[in-house]
Structure formats: structure tokens, C-alpha cells
Fold each of these.
Amino acid sequence: MPHKRKRKTKQDHDVVNLEWTKIKKRLRRKHSAAYVQQEWEHLLVLHPGGNAKERRQYAAQVDAVPKHRDDIQWLQQDVTCGWERVKPTAGCLTEFAVDGSVLTVASGALQKAGIDTHRRKGQLMKAGSSVATNMALKNKRKIPAFGTIPQLGLRYRKEEPADSDRPKLAVSAKSKKLGDRQFSSMLNDIRNLSSTVVQVTNHWMANVVREREATLQSVVSDLGSISTSYPAVQVGINVGVGIHLDSDDLFWGTWACLGGLTMALPEYGVLLELSDGDIVTFDTAQIYHCMVRRPPEMCECACLSLYYNSKQHKRFIDTFEQGLSIEMEGD
């Protein structure tokens, strides 16, 4: 019987060799974190649009929200029209200095790394129709969201352990007909893309990548994480999310854009206009942010949001220690 070659796992600490021109800019604070929390937290942001037609298209989203979703409220265009629309420098590595931190955008990084973003976006859209939770229909959640978000990785397997209180991914999927092979293929496509995204970030945060990778691999080695340093990914498809902090994040988050996206930074009164192929890293636990929803009729877009939550990590440790205990009992 021929030997079946095992697929080599891409390691996040491996560097993708790219050349970057570094640009430094500063975003100046307009509102305190306390003000944003009190006045705007969990509001979805309505983009003011670039012209009258776009303004109407964005505004029409309010009427598209299902009646039962009274948790979805909007920050209106008469506020956001006064925000600055900021773009990173095309083809460069732009570091936006913010109070005590930095937000980095690698413009067109996916294309530089050899990724066909059009094809990859199609794969993500397929994930949206196969294993997604439709956030427009889902009941109220801590951070309101509107659109479609497939969640993949260690916490979102197709089959959960028998003693798990988490529903099987297939149960919550739009399509109940997804087979194991289809699921594995789709997961591997997104895992491969996620790994490439993280490898690119080694150009400006290699030490962080190695630390995050060592932390994750110490508790969940070979258990199906979305990359070797991130346990899971959210894939936002034409999604809008309320203004929030990811206060439980253990490490900074990484975003990758498939299509044009807008990130709102309400403390700075900024709409950060991102382009197809951009990669973003920032302190998700300290910088208020959200993804601004673009209506599907305007464009199709997807965002990979890689994250590492401290509550996840605690569960990983508990599972790891439980496994060790069982092994010791067996000995």
C-alpha cells in the first residue's frame, strides 16, 4: 500500500519575503474612550457615502433590519459625515500612531504574497453559504452584527465532542448537506489563506507572532486551529458590527480584506478606507473599532478577522490538563 504523504502545516513564524516602504502617520484623538462607551458603544455605523447615491444606499440599510432585531441601532450619517476618511498609502506599510499604540496597514499585501484575491473571495463567499450563521436572523448577542459571519477553527468544528455543550457547526449552518470532505476542503482553503496573512505580519511584529504561536501550541498542538498562532477566524461577509472593544483578547487582532472595506475608529473620528488585499493589525482590546457594513448591491466584500481570546485560552488549558490527567490515569 503506497505511503500517504502528510501535508506539511504552514507555520506562522515563517516569513514571506516582501519589500515594503514604511510610512508613518498619526491619528489624533477626538473623543475619549469613556465618551465612546457611553454614547456610541454597540451602535452600527452608517457610512456617509462618497456621493448622494451612496449616501442613500447606506441609509437604506436601516429599513433592511428584521423587526425582531431591536438590538441593532445605528450611528447616523449626520455624525459620521464629519469624520475624516483616511486611506493608507497604496503599496506601502503605513503605521498609524494612536495614543500609546499603533495600527498597521500593509496595502495590497495579499497580492504581493501571490494571493489571487478574487478567487479567494469566492471561496469565502462559499463558506458563507455553507457554514455561516446569518447575523441578520440570529437572536440578540453581546455585540450586535448584521450580515453573515462564518466562524472556523478550533472552537467551530463540524463535529463537537460528545460531552460538548456547543451545538455542532453543521446544525447552525445554512446548508445541512455539507459533507466531511467538503468541510475539510473549505477549512483547509481558509486555513491556508489565514496562515499566509499571519506570515506577512512577521515583517513588523515577528516577536509577537512567535510568542502567540508558542502560547497556542503549548495547549492545542495539532488540534485543528485556523493557523499555528490563531485558534479561530471570523469571516465577515458584507457584515456590519457594532462599535466595541474586544476586551478579552489575549493578543492583537489581524484583519485581511477581500474587497474594499471600511473600519470605523470612533475615538479618532476616522473612517479608515481599506482596499482589496490589505492586511491590518491593531490592539483590538484597547482601540474602539467596528466594521462598517457595505450593502451587497454596492459590492461584495469579505474580511478575515483572526483573534485569540483569553476565555478561549482558559478553555484550551482546561482541555489540555484534562487530557494529561486521563493519560496519567492510564499509565
Amino acid sequence: MAQKIIVPDQDNPHAEKDILDKPAAPGPATYAELKAACAGADADFIVKQLDAGATVPQAQTAWMAELNKRATDAKAEAATAKTEATAAKDEVTALKAGRPGVKPLGQDAKKKDKSPDGEPDEDDEEVEGDAAKSAFNAKVHHYMETRKVPRTGTADQPGAIQLVAINHQKLHKQYLKATNPGKKMARMLDEKFDEVA
């Protein structure tokens, strides 16, 4: 702010006139001035500027530089995260490719294994409720009796269940509906089995 200096007027010795002095150099900005001038600045930045005795223009220049630095850091961090995510995805894909086990039901629906009682039953009768449970369990026991694990000579129940599920999909669907009652579960099973077919 300019300072006001009053001096006698040379043309009129009884009058005084105002002479404006050179404007005073701006001093250190206050907290409120810095907060208003540097929109979005956090408290740490403002305190650093107060400690440095910065003026408003100096603080604004520093704030622009800080924003540019933060943007560059954020881009570098995003690039690193993207690289790590891609590497993790590739690792999961590699693990899935070499994973032991059996493919989920439905992926090889066209390549059905021959069952001990011949070809898969395409004409499985529509049974519901306890009848579906009994029919499914009877098929499993039949497969267990006809297929034994070679080394131990014992029945392979998980393998028998898998064969029944693959070779008798209609019966498997009815069995799942009977053991998982509810409209929502029935809808989900219908959708899942429609995807496989």
C-alpha cells in the first residue's frame, strides 16, 4: 500500500498537498491471504510458506510448482500400479494354465465321458424333489460299483458324482434344485445350465 506524505504546496504556502510515495514492498502474507490465493492448498504447504515468509505471488508460484510435482508423481504411481496389475494378471493366468485338477462342469459338455451303463442318458425323465435326489444318488452308487480306483480297489465317490453330473445333466439340475430350494436358486441353476447347453 502506498504511503501518504503531506508537504507544503509551493504555489500556495498556506496549503498542503499530498504526495504519494513509492508503494511499499509487499511483506509476508498472512494465513488467510495464502489460503485465499492458493486454492486447494493443504495446511502443510501454507505453514511452509508462512515459515519461509513468502509473499502472495511467491506462494502462488510455489503452489503451481507443487501441483505440477504432485501430478507427475501421481502419473508415475499410476503407471507403476498398472504395470504391477498386468504382471499379477499374467501370473494368475500362468497359474491357472498349469493348475492340476478337473475342468469345471460345462467346459467339455460336448465331450461326454462314456458312462458304465453306455452313452449318456439324453432321455432322463423329469423328476423333482425327493425323487430327483433318490435317482441321482442311485446313479452315483451304480457308478461307484462299476468304477473302482485301480490302486486301492475302493469306490471313487467324487469321480462317480462327476460322471453322473456330466452324463446326466438334466438329472443333476433337478438334484441341485431339490437340495437347494428357493426361487432365486432355481433361477440361477436354470441360467447356469442354459449356458452349458
Amino acid sequence: MTKPAMKATRSIAIAAVIGLGSLSGASIVAAPAVAARSAAPPTVFQVSVSSSLHKLTSTTGHHLKASVSAASFTSGPDYVDIVLDTPTLAESHTWDVPVPGAALTVSSTGSGTLKVPATKLSPYGVIALKITPTGPSRTMMCRGQLASKSRPVALAGKFLFNTHSHGTHKWGSVGSRHVKFSTATITWTYQGASSCGSTIAPCMYGISFDLQQHGVELSGTEAGRTGTLAGRRSVLLSRPKGASRSDSATGGAKITLKIAHSNNATMKVVGTRHAAGSAVLRSTAPGGVGQSCGPADTPVESWNSGFSNGSPVLKLREQIFGAIHARAARTQAYFTKVAR
């Protein structure tokens, strides 16, 4: 499970086509669970559980969707994530908490518990869920070796969480002593699975941008007439020790890209639908081909650029913890274009 903390370095990307693409050199095949054909049993590197979204109503009357996930490693603390979303998923908040000792205890069959006592989750609440298998296991093989095994489970028991949110629309607390996440998955990841190889998506056509600075990320994509703006903010919490919170939001955007005869370019972003304000990204030098994407190695033309907010600033609205926005960045940035 990936921790939500963001990189501190700043970067901005705008893309007329963001491309990632090539085929992995290794194939992964799903099959019914079978015993590993090796002299020694494979070594488990990580055990994780992740639930689907469960509808809850907060103490302040907000209808929300909640999920919980946890990961246990061979060394270091366990990590537990609590996620709360609005019904449309336009706003999401994730609390990531390291738990000294064992929070997730699972047998080889998938039965177990997820327990985070109040002393380790303070001041947010308590989790005490029983894990029960609901279906057969399946394995993932890579280069003839066992990479991972998963099994559907259900989580049931005590789930009490106080968001400690502020603002006009604060969410209050959610959960009860009898909450059931009816759909969840236990996954065992085995040593060496990370060397199995990775897949890269093909070129995605459209125009897009990305900005990262000081724990805030803003990104947007427009394909055809549909524009989307997304934002994420990472905040370190004073308690529990080492915990963090990630605030995310999505909205609409109108994104335009203009390329001059000099091959300099300008992108303008205007927020719509849960977003507001505007921003401009201007190239600082003529663009050129510096990379490629997709299985055909399609050339990607890119430009260095800067970022400046309009008036009002480009931002995504949130019900709690304030809007997500970025300051003007006078640092190196870039945007790209890929022609079909």
C-alpha cells in the first residue's frame, strides 16, 4: 500500500498528449490457487487487506462512503488507511496511520482480525474488525514463480472514526460498533514479485497538465470537449506519530493550448464544476522532441514552462479542510504534445 505523503520537489507538466506505453517483457496469468512447485515454500513479503466503499451517515448528517485498508510487512510497522468519500467521489480524504506492532493478523486461509485500539489511533477512534473468507483463493504467477495470492473476504465489527474536520460543512464522526464491509480482498505478496516486470499504458491523446509543489498537486486533462481538474494535498498530522492525511478533489476544467510560430506555447486552465479560478502556463523556450510514448515510440514534443494563477486563483472546492490550490511557481516545468 502506498503512503500518501507527496514529494517536496516542484514540477509542472502540461500535455497535449501524455503518453506511456510499451509491453512488459513478462506475462502474468491468473489461475486457481495451487501449491508452489519449488523445493522451498515462497516467502511472504507483504499481507494486505482492502475493502470496498461502504455507505455511512455522519453525525452531522452527511452521507459518505467509507473504506478501510491495511498492510503488514515483514519488517517495520503495519499501516492502516481510512478513506471517506462524498457520494459522487468528487471529494475524498485518506488518513494514513502507522501502527507499531501488529494491526493486521491473518492466517494462511485468510481468516483474521484488523485491530487498531484507541491508544494507537487517538484522537480519531478505534477499529476492531473480524476478517472472514467469502470465496476461494486465486494466485498470480510470474515467470513460473508465485507472485501473489488473493482471497475475497468480509470485514465486520467495530469501526468508529472522528474526522475532526472543520468548516461550514464539517463531517463529524462516522461508524458504529456493528459495521460490515461485505466486499474486501486479502492479498499475499511474495518475495521477488517486484522483479516480475511492469506494464506501461499506451499514449493517451488529449491535452493535460500537472503541477506539484509544497505538498499540493494539481492536474488536468481535456479530451475532446470533456475537461477534468484534480487536486491532492498531503498534510502531516500531530497525532498519531507518523500519521498523515491526504485530501483529494475533482472538478471540471476548460483547458486550451496555443502554439506560436516560434514553437513557444501557452496553456490556459479555467475551473468549472466544483472548481473555480484560472491559471496560465507559458513555455520559457521553444519546444523540441525529447521523449517518446507507446509501442511505436511516437515522438513527444515538450516545452519548459512556468505557472501563474489568475484572479481568482485556480482551486478545487472542498467541504472540509479548505480548498485545494497551488501558489504561482517560477520553477522549471514542462508540457508536451503528441500527434496521432
